[in-house]
Amino acid sequence: MAIAISSYPYPTQKDSWLEMAIEEDKQEAVLEAQAPLHGDVLESILSHLPLINLVPASRVSKAWRRAVASSLCNSPRAKPWLFLYIQSRRNPSLITTHAYDPNSQLWMDVTTHTSDDNHVFPLRCSHLNLLYVLSSSKFAFSFDPLNVTWHNPDPPLVWRLDPVVAIIGSRVVVAGGTAEFEDDPLAVEMYDLTSRRWEMCQSMPAILKGSAATTWLSVAVSNERLLVLEKASGAVCMFDPETSTWEGPFDLRHPGPSVFYSVIASCSEDHVVLVGLMGEATGTDNIVQGIGLWELDCESETFDCKVIGRMPGEMVEKLVNADCSPLSSIGVSTAGNLIYIYNPSNPEAIMFCEFTNGVARGWGHIHNSIVDDRNRMERFELTCSRVGIDDLQRALTSGNRRITVKYAGN
Questions:
Q1: Do 47 and 174 belong to one domain?
Q2: Which among 6, 134, 305, 343 is least surrounded, fewest beta carbons within 10 Å?
Q3: Does residue 46 sit in the same domain as residue 107?
Q4: What residues does the F-box domain cover (predicted)?
Q5: For 65-193, where are the E strands, in sequence order?
Q6: Crossing angle for the helix pair 17-34 and 62-74, nearest 10 degrees?
């Protein structure tokens, strides 16, 4: 049975807060006197509930609110959520949002009731959980866990398609993309969230001229610097937002079998992890022999790679067999120390592992029943965010979010 959790009523300006507080205390006293659940028993029960179910539980009474807080301290739901956005190719305004909570292994539908026009353009993500839409007349982005807040600055001066868009501290960097004939395809602009101003920066290195869009590039942030990896060649360039300048390219040193395609992602307190397809790239018929994970040494000029793990063979087979065509690319979403790995063109099978003490361990598999024959040809974007009860409270009390628990993901 699906459980829907929506917004909650709050008093209007005409209500008397004092009268309501007195009445609430009376009702709470009656509830606590009648309630069969108290103290450790209540906390024990709450510790087994999904995070989404703790939201209404925290509103039963002050005692229950304290019990929820204590339960989260003793049993934190710390694993980041995975978000899947499905956008219609024919009508970009049609977007469905789905969330997976790995702590409870539940898939949820996130319904948004809003009249803004952010979603009449393609929804994209090239870094962490930063979602954005970009056109010649509009630029909007959101990076809070449930995308309650959208920023709407003036668009960049240079119009481009599919650029790298990344957030570094309080700055949003827009780099490269497929530009119009008269524009610079390597142009870089930086938006300051504090001053709300754009700044033109040094263009991307010339080596990226033929591959400056996110189709061919992967990005991560380390030590307040933006790393840009060319997925096919493994060349890395680095952007410093303080000086607005680039360094590189640098060549990655892959250990082990040949890596013909790779992506990078920020992970676990400033670490950068590389995920690569190992095997033979033969054009239309790639032979994938394995998927490896390395940690990048971003302090060395050679960006040396340290092996941290390898995806189990049966999981590699699931990714390879999830699509009728050969596996030619890989997608990665990360937050904290959790790494989700999937086929970006068909995320029906999603693998994950945890990066702890320099090793990828705790491998698991999520069956994504959200993707089926009805939406398999649509556009997919996946992000990953840490979600707390405060984030859920804020989203649900905004009045335009409804979260419905669907089913278990494994």
A1: no
A2: 6
A3: no
A4: 37-77
A5: 81-87, 95-101, 106-112, 124-127, 130-134, 139-142, 160-161, 164-168, 171-175, 178-179, 188-192
A6: 70
Q: Which of 49, 74, 99 is the last residue of a domain?
A: 74
Q: At what angle do helices 62-74 and 39-46 cross, to 10 degrees?
A: 60
Cβ of 329: how many Cβ atoms within 10 Å? 15
On whether both 281 and 242 belong to a single domain, the answer is yes
Q: Is 99 helix (H, G, I), strand (E, B) or coil?
A: strand
| 159-169 b/e (C-beta count within 10 Å ≥ 16 → b) | bbbbbbbbbbe
150 within 8 A of 116, measured Cβ to Cβ: yes
Which among 256, 200, 259 is positioned nearest to 235, based on CA atoms? 259
DSSP 3-state of 365: strand
pTM of the predicted structure, to 2 decimals: 0.88
As a whole number of angstroms, the distance between CA 171 and CA 241 comes to 8
The per-residue pLDDT string of the chain (410 residues; one tens digit each, 9 = 90 and over) reads 455 555 444 444 444 545 655 565 555 555 555 555 667 888 888 988 999 999 999 988 888 899 999 999 988 888 999 999 999 999 888 899 999 999 999 999 998 865 556 667 889 999 989 999 998 889 999 999 999 999 999 999 988 889 999 999 999 999 999 876 667 889 999 999 999 999 999 999 999 988 999 999 999 999 899 999 999 888 899 999 999 999 989 887 666 568 889 999 998 777 999 999 998 877 667 788 899 999 998 887 778 889 999 999 999 998 988 766 678 889 999 999 999 999 988 899 999 999 988 899 999 999 888 998 899 899 999 999 999 999 999 999 887 789 999 877 66
CATH number at residue 379: 2.120.10.80
Residues 6+ apart with CB under 8 A from 205: 186, 237, 246, 248, 249
Cα separation, 38 vs 333, in Å, equals 40
Q: Among all chains, which residue has been given the structure tokens 């920020």? A: 266
Return phi, psi of residue 397, to 5°.
-85, -5
- Token pair for residue 184? 């610079």
Range of the domain at 114: 81-408
